[in-house]
Amino acid sequence: MRALLSVSDKTGIVEFARELENLGVTIISTGGTHKKLEESGIAVTGISDVTGFPECLDGRVKTLHPAVHGGILAMRDKPEHMKQLADLGIETIDIVAINLYPFKETILKPGVTLEDAIENIDIGGPTMLRSAAKNHKDVVVICDPADYETVIDELKKNKTVSYDTKYRLALKVFQHTAAYDAMISDYLRKQIGAELPDNLTMTFEKVQELRYGENPHQKASYYKEIQPADGSLVKAEQLHGKELSFNNINDTNGALAALREFSEPTVVAVKHANPCGVGTGSDIYTAYKRAYDCDPTSIFGGIVAANRPIDKATAEEINKIFIEIVIAPDFTDEAMEILTQKKNIRLLKLPDIENKEAAGEIDIKKVSGGLLVQGVDDILFDENALNVVTDRAPTEKELEDLRLAMKVVKHIKSNGIVIAKDQATVGIGPGQVNRIWAVENAIRQANTSLEGSVLASDAFFPFDDCVTAAAKAGVTAIIQPGGSIRDQESIDKANELGIAMVFCGIRHFKH
Asked: What is the mean pLDDT of the chain?
C-alpha cells in the first residue's frame, strides 16, 4: 500500500505516518509535511520522485500530475485500468490524507489583503481529495485528523478499511470541499459588494447539537457563519445557566434585532419571537421597569435584552420573576451574584450588542423546495420624508413616542400594531390576519390608561375602523406608511376625532 500525506494542519500527522510505516505502508509527501515527517525519522518519498517533475511556481504546481491522479483514480477491479497503469509505470495510491490551505484562518486575520487570501486558495489539495473520494471504493480518503485513529484501528484489525468507513470519509470530503469553495466565493463576492448570485452556495460551521428544535420531536443544530460580525448572537459568551435551546436562540435573536434600533438605554423583552415590552430611560433600571410594566404577564419566562450593563438594582428586579435569558454587554459583580442564585437562568454577555447589521447582510427564509433571500430591513424611515396628513401635527412628545412605536412594530409579526406612551410600549398586537384585530388586541393588552398614547402600524390602514378604535381608547397620534386607496377615509376620520396622523412612506411587514 502507498499513502499520500500532505497537510496544512499537522495535528497528529507524525503519529499517523508512524503507524502507517509500522504497517508496511509506503509514504509519499510534499513540502512542509515531507520535511516534518523526515525530521521525525519516518521514511518518506518526495512527490517529485513520484512524478519525475520538480515542484514549481512557488509550490503552486506539484501534485497535478498523472502519476498522482492516475494512481488515485484507477479502478482496481477494471483490468484495462490496471494495464494502463502498468504500461505507464504508475503505481496505485491507496490512502490520501490531505487538509487544505488555511483560507478561513487567513481571511479572519485583521488587515488581511485580497492577495493574501488568494494565495491561500488551495488547488491541488481539493483536486486530490475529490479524486480519492470519487474512487472511495478503492481509496481511503481523510480530510480530518480526527479520522486517523479510525483508519489505523481498522488496518490493524482487518488489514483493510471497510467500505462503510470509506464511504463515510468520502462523504465528509465532499462536504468539506463544498464548504471550502463556498467560503471562497462568499469572500470574493463580499469584496466587491456583488449582488446575490444566480447560484447561491453558503457555508456554516456547527456550533452545537441542540436537544431538539421548536418541538421535542424535531432534530436541530446551531450553526454559525465563517465570519460572524461583532455583535452577532453567535459571539455571545454564556456566563451562567443551562444549555440554550432552539427557541431560546431564535427568541434572543429577535430581541437583539429590536434592541439594535435604539442607542439610548433600552430593554427589550421578547416572548415567542415577538417583543412583549420595550422601554427606554435615562438608565437601564428605568428602561427595564418600563419594559416590564408594558406586559408583566408575558415577560414571565421570556427573554430580556439590554444595551447597557446590568447593575445591582436591575438584577434585583429581574430576579423577582422567572426569566429564561438575560443578554447584555456586561454584568456588574453584584448583578452576577444576584442573578446566579437561580441556576437555570441563562446569562449571555455580548460586548458589541449595539452594533448594527453589516452592510450587505441578507435574510433567508426556507420554503418547500427552495429559499427566499432578501436584504435585511435596515431602515426605519426618512425623517425628512415624514408627512403630516392631518390638520393637527403631533407634538414633540408624541413624535418621540411615535418613533419608538415604529422601531418596535418593525420587529413584530404582521399584521402588527404597537401603542406607546412615555418612551415605552403599553400595548402590542402582533400577528393578526386583519389590522383591526391587531389594533383591538393591542388596546386590550394594555394594563394602563391609553390617554395620550400613540400608535404605530407596520402597514397602511385599509379602512378607517382602526382610527376609530384607537381614538376611543385614548390614542392621540398615529404613524403609518400610507399608500392605501382609502387613505383619505382614515385621514378624514383622524381629523374628525382630533388625532394627528403621520405617513412615513415605509412599510415594515415581518412574516
From this structure: 92
pLDDT per position as a tens digit, 166-220: 999 999 999 999 999 988 988 888 888 777 778 888 889 899 999 999 999 999 9
In the block, cell 480518503 appears at: 141
pTM: 0.82
The per-residue pLDDT for 51 is 78
354 membership: H or E segment, kind and range: none
Candidates 452, 416, 419; CA nearest to 434 is: 416
Residues 6+ apart with CB under 8 A from 362: 196, 373, 374, 375, 376
Q: How far apart are the first and last CA of the chain?
A: 58
Q: Which residue among 272, 289, 342, 397 is the active-site one?
A: 272
User: 447 or 439: whose pLDDT is higher?
Assistant: 439
Residue holding cell 484501528? 153
The string of DSSP codes covering 193-253 is: TPPPPSS----EEEEEEES-SSSTTS-EEEEEESSPPTT-GGGPEEEESSPPPHHHHHHHH
Look at residue 20 in the predicted model and tell me its pLDDT.
93
The distance between the two most distant Cα atoms of the chain, rounded to a whole number of Å, is 97
Q: Does 134 participate in catalysis according to the annotation?
A: yes
Which amino acid is present at 82?
M
Angle at the Cα of 332 from the Cα atoms of 326 and 335, rounded to 5 degrees: 60
pLDDT in tens, 187-198: 888 888 777 778
How far is the CA of 170 from the CAs of 154, 167, 366, in angstroms?
Answer: 16, 5, 28
Please write the tens of the pLDDT for every residue from 347-389.
999 999 999 887 778 889 989 999 998 888 999 999 999 999 9
Residue 433 gets which letter from DSSP?
S
Cis peptide before 248 (omega within 30 of 0): no
Rounded Cα distance between 268 and 277, Å, is 6
pLDDT tens digits for range 76-117: 888 999 898 899 988 899 999 998 888 888 888 888 899 899
Comparing C-alpha atoms, which of 325, 369, 313 is closest to residue 350? 325
SS3 letters for 232-243? CHHHCEEEECCC
The whole-angstrom distance between residue 229's C-alpha and the CA centroid of its chain comes to 9
Is there a contact between 294 and 278 (Cβ–Cβ < 8 Å)? yes
176: annotated active-site residue: no
Name the amino acid, one letter, at 234.
V
Task: Give ∠ CA 204-206-212 in degrees, rounded to 5.
Answer: 120
C-alpha cell at 400: 418621540
Q: 182 in helix, strand or coil?
A: helix
Catalytic residue chosen out of the listed positions 134, 190, 224, 289: 134
Q: Is the pLDDT of residue 458 over 90?
A: yes
Radius of gyration over every alpha carbon of the chain, rounded to an integer in angstroms: 31
